[in-house]
Each structure stands twice: as structure tokens, then as C-alpha cells.
From TrEMBL:
The lineage of its organism: Bacteria, Bacillati, Actinomycetota, Actinomycetes, Streptosporangiales. This is Nuclear transport factor 2 family protein. Gene3D superfamilies: 3.10.450.50. SUPFAM superfamilies: NTF2-like (SSF54427).
Length: 139
């Protein structure tokens, strides 16, 4: 794991969410995530409230496997990036500790500028340096 550049991994991860080409997004997902990897989102309060009202466990939202992660990334891209609302950029604070990479990311207006949001990402890597579990905490 020591040969992994955590800032490079963070940059490739965030670039995936901004990628307009569905084929390149799919390719990046296969490169970044292990086959059975998971993306686990700690949803914002308003989503947790709606899910709880519908009788769902609202503490997390999970996508497991390349196909489900692709759906998750694609829908996020369509809603936020392709719509022209925002784009995402990594902060310059990625660190690697054993098999864990931690970094923050910013949500910025589509034209650039100051962050209007962001979050914390914690990636648990497998023995091949691919994402086994991705914990996302938007904030």
C-alpha cells in the first residue's frame, strides 16, 4: 500500500464524479473499485427524514458492486454536474494510513469559485489498492 499516492487517488476519485462520458465513468469505476466494492453514503438530514417517513433505515444509503456504483455516480452526475449546477474538486489533504485513504472534497459552482459545500471521504482499500468500501459524508 505504500506505493499509493493518496492525493492522486483522491483526484481520480473526484474526477469520476465530474466525468461527462458514461463509458469513461464506467471504466474509472472498474479501475477504482474492487469487484464487490461498496459506496456507502451518510445521507443529508433531509434525505434521512424522507426515508424514515417511508419506513426505511435512513442511517445509510449503499450501492454495492460496479453496476450499482455506476448507477449512483451517473445519477449524481446528471443531477448536479450535467445540469450545470456544480462540479466537485478534491482538497489537497489526502492521507494514507495502512489501507485507509481520507480526504475532503468541495462542491463548487459550475463556473468555478468558492466552495458552496463539500464532504469527507474515507476509502478502505483492498490488497490491490482498489476501493473495497467508500464511506461518503457530505456536509
Amino acid at each position: 500500500m505504500t506505493d499509493i499516492d493518496p492525493q492522486d487517488l483522491a483526484a481520480r476519485y473526484v474526477a469520476l464524479w465530474n466525468e461527462p462520458d458514461p463509458d469513461l465513468r464506467r471504466e474509472a469505476i472498474h479501475e477504482l473499485w474492487a469487484e464487490g466494492g461498496a459506496h456507502i453514503l451518510h445521507p443529508p438530514q433531509e434525505i434521512r427524514k424522507i426515508a424514515a417517513e417511508l419506513g426505511f433505515d435512513s442511517s445509510t444509503l449503499e450501492a454495492r458492486g460496479h453496476e450499482r456504483i455506476e448507477v449512483r455516480v451517473s445519477r449524481s452526475h446528471e443531477r448536479f454536474v450535467a445540469s450545470g449546477q456544480v462540479s466537485f474538486r478534491p482538497q489537497d489533504n489526502a492521507v494514507l494510513l495502512h489501507d485507509i485513504v481520507r480526504f475532503n472534497w468541495d462542491t463548487v459552482p459550475a463556473g468555478g469559485g468558492e466552495a458552496v459545500g463539500g464532504g469527507l471521504e474515507i476509502l478502505v482499500l483492498d490488497e490491490n489498492g482498489r476501493i473495497a468500501v467508500d464511506y461518503m459524508f457530505p456536509g
